[in-house]
Amino acid sequence: MSTITAGDITRPLNGLKQSPRLQQQGGTGVILFNSTGHLLFINSEAQAFIHQLQPLSTRENGACLIPEEILTVVRALVARLMHCDHPKDLESFQVERLCVAPGQQFLLRGLCIPDEPLARNSRCLVVMEKLNQHKLECTDAEIQRLYHLTEREQMVIIYLKLGFTNKEIAGRMNLSEYTVKEHLKRIMHKTKTTTRTGLVGRMIFPTSEEPSHASFLKR
Fold first, then answer.
1. Of these four, 73, 130, 148, 161, which has the most CB atoms within 10 Å of its CB?
2. CA atoms of 98 and 174, how far apart (whole Å)
3. Of the candidates 124, 62, 51, 50, which has an alpha carbon nearest to the alpha carbon of residue 93?
4. pTM given for the model
5. What are the helix and strand counts (H, E) for the chain?
6. pLDDT, tens digit, for every residue of 53-103?
C-alpha cells in the first residue's frame, strides 16, 4: 500500500485541476478519509471553514465535527469505490455539493484517490472552496426562498455566473448537457427570465421585471 502525504494531497488529482475561476481568497480546505469513511487528515483551512459554518460544532478537545454536507459527499465517494473494479473507473469521477450557511457559501468537491485493492486501500478527498459572495454575487438565502431554488439549481447558477458553458457545467456536475439545459429551463421559469444574461441579472436585482428574449440553450 502506498503512503499518501500532505504533499500528495495538494497536487492535482485524477487530472482534475482546480479551476482558476473557483480559486478564492482564504485558501483551500482539504479533508482526507479512508475507504470506509474514517477521517485521516484535515488541514487548518478546512477546520477554519467548518468553524465558520458551525461555530459551535467542536468537541472539548477543539477538534472539528464534520458537517453532514461533507459526510454526504464522502458516502457518495465510498459507494462509488464499492462498485469499481479498476482505478481507471475513478479517473473522471467527482462529487460536488454546495454548502450554504447565513452569509457563507462553500463548494465541496469530492474525489477518489485509487489504490489497489480499491475497496480497502483507496482514499476519499474532499476539497472545500469558499465562494466569494461579493465577486460571484451568489444566490443568498432570500433569493433561494423567493424563487424556491433547489441546491442543484443554485450550483448551476453559480457556474453560470463564473462563465461556464453548458458543457463545462455538465462536466463538473456529472450531468448530461441535456440535463443542464433542463435545469436552466426550470430556473428561468421560476425567475421569469428567458436568457442566461437575464437570469444572472435577476440574481443581482431580484425585483427586476424586464426579461429579454434571446435563446439561451446554445452556448
1. 73
2. 14
3. 124
4. 0.59
5. 10, 5
6. 776 554 444 456 888 889 999 999 999 888 888 888 887 788 888 777 667
